[in-house]
Amino acid sequence: MAAMPYYLTDFWLLTGLFAMAAALGAIGLNILSGTTGQLSLGHAFFLAVGAYGYMFFSGESGRSGTHDINGLGLPPTVALVLAVLFAGVVGGIFSPISGRLRGMYLGIATLALVFIGEHVMINAHSVTGGYNGRAAEPMEFFGFTLSERDPDELKVLGVEFGAYERLWYLALVLLVVGILLARNLLRGRPGRALGAVRDSEIAAAVMGVPVARYRSMAFVVSSMYAGLAGVLLALIFGRVIPEYFGLALSIDYLAMIVIGGLGSVGGAVAGAVFVTVLPQLFAHYAASLPLVVESGGDGVGPTEAARYLYGAAIVLVLLFAPGGLAGLARRRPRAPKPSARVPARSWSRFRSRSQEPQGAVS
């Protein structure tokens, strides 16, 4: 992964960046839905909170079009941390509702967050910029800009490092840290408690697990992962518009964790790569694929074809591989059954011993 910027073109680097951002968000949703069993259709809302939170904390106050834009002008690294924490706070505010609702009722409540978020993003012009969105400040570390596309300033081993190459390593570090934190969380006592809450809340409460606290904790952790993914998306896009954070994005994240495998960190990453990379591949190779036309033509476009394909993948996974891609990876070939036939040599030895006197046998 660290060597890919030296060999890949901008198209593949951009596709990889979107996949890594989606993987972070999918890990968070898998902790909430796959491990704890809480259905959420509002994951896109928390991605928007992270993205616009970063732009507000790092952006300067000024004017964009016909509206004034407000911002705190903090350093981008501080803004990233505050945006993630802010997403966790918003998830904590919603967590009492999640503690009272179950199943489909919780899904409908989180779905309301998406519609509320769209209304706020369109009308809060001073924070979000309205329909036209808002530009994201480039990430900086000690004066080194990661998002500024000026390849003449930096060359490594003869390779020009522009915006995508620089952002690649930031996304890779964030993804590795996110995977390690999630694995440690799920393998420890909190992970066992979350699994117990998913299997049976009554049994978990009998064993001494504070169910309400762990349900709230799962929502906060999931929101923070989504906020981090939203910050990374803002850096990749450079300008974020409200239209991107709609219901379709939440459905995509549900598809990621179902295809990858519920409750598995590696499965969430694999599902995110599958769902994110597939439309890009269809769009890139649309002219070479049968029954698929280029965007704008008469017929099935690359985006629609990709949705049909991973929609069919969800059905196939539910029917034949409930564990998802992670379950297929863990599946091992069955060991051959031992033969029920007793070897002749062993049988003859048993007969000879059984015919001896009882004392000799003892």
Features:
two-stranded antiparallel ribbon, mainly alpha, 362 residues, transmembrane helix, cell membrane, transmembrane, LivM-like
* Strand residues, percent: under 5%
Which ranges are low-confidence, i.e. pLDDT below 50, for 5 or more consecutive residues?
none
Structural class: mainly alpha
DSSP helical segment count: 15
* Separation of the first and last Cα atoms: 67 Å
Count the E strands: 8
Strand order of the largest sheet: 1-2
What is the alpha-carbon Rg in Å?
Answer: 26 Å
Helix content: 55-70%
Spatial shape: globular
- Assembly classification: single chain
How would you spell out the order of helices and strands? HHEEHHHEEEEEHHHHEHHHHHH
| Mean pLDDT reading | 82
Largest sheet: 2 strands, antiparallel
Task: Write a brief caption for the model.
This protein has 362 residues and is mainly alpha-helical. It contains 15 helices and eight strands. The chain crosses the membrane at residues 12-32, 39-57, 77-97, 104-122, 167-186, 217-238, 308-329.
